[in-house]
């Protein structure tokens, strides 16, 4: 892992890596402080390149002021493994699950950016106990379209990527840039032109776009029972505003905020940016615990653990992973994970080092 900083005024991010269920290595970054917020990745990302972005930088700084932010490069993109062909909804959901498990947070707000919508919906459906708040930004529930004109347009985009994605001349990539941030400066346009080239290969860009267009989580919307905020630019040319209306109508109690912008990525000097900041901050403040009197201190000892928790911890101490423990004790892997989470909570241990610290306490007592 490593740390990357921009300047003294910027927060710092820590780059980490984990493995998806199919073995693909996924890069993720953590920065900021406060209640955790996981950002479900959009189509184009590069954890290090984004960190210095004149298009994205204000988002990263804003999020980190009030939250511990966990964001990641999807498979085939950025610092994650590049030689990947499976960009299906299930594979992308596995990436998100792997990042969350490795980061070690039990409950968090989840913000879906752009094409991350179907994945976030599927995750919140599969793990409702983990998601405290759900935010969609410029996103949608279904990438499938039955409009022949949409298919023709996507075929044209596919050819543009094939012919021009890797060229030094950014003329072909500027088509996508102009759709994402039509009201940007030339500096911002040039940066997004370059992000396309450095974030992934032309082959992966084409494959991932094709498989994203098959992603459909719309049937899951009615089953979501989580506070939900939908933020969307009214003039968005990448994902039309109608997608935000469908999301909001499909989730009970969801609230829609229209951002008065033509940019898919709202820029820092737009009035819409201040609306986004205020709405997101107010929405996420519900996850900030109210001040309370400190509880009397009590020793965090192994005596607090149940016999089953001690048994699982002993197996972890001899090097077994969760799958091995589950097989040995005839339990599900999720049950093992739940027992270990209880161990960490009782011993006041957090983050990636919690397992190591818990085992060390067991061995010290022995």
From TrEMBL:
InterPro entries: AB_hydrolase, AB_hydrolase_1, AB_hydrolase_fold, Sig_transdc_resp-reg_C-effctor, Tscrpt_reg_LuxR_C, WH-like_DNA-bd_sf
Keyword Hydrolase: yes
Keyword vocabulary terms for this entry: Hydrolase
SMART domains: HTH_LUXR (SM00421)
Pfam families tied to this protein: Abhydrolase_1, GerE
CDD domains xref list: LuxR_C_like
Gene3D superfamilies the UniProt entry points to: alpha/beta hydrolase (3.40.50.1820), Winged helix-like DNA-binding domain superfamily/Winged helix DNA-binding domain (1.10.10.10)
Organism encoding this protein: Pedococcus bigeumensis
Annotated GO MF terms: DNA binding; hydrolase activity
Keyword Lyase: no
Ranges for domain HTH luxR-type: 298-363
Protein name: Alpha/beta fold hydrolase
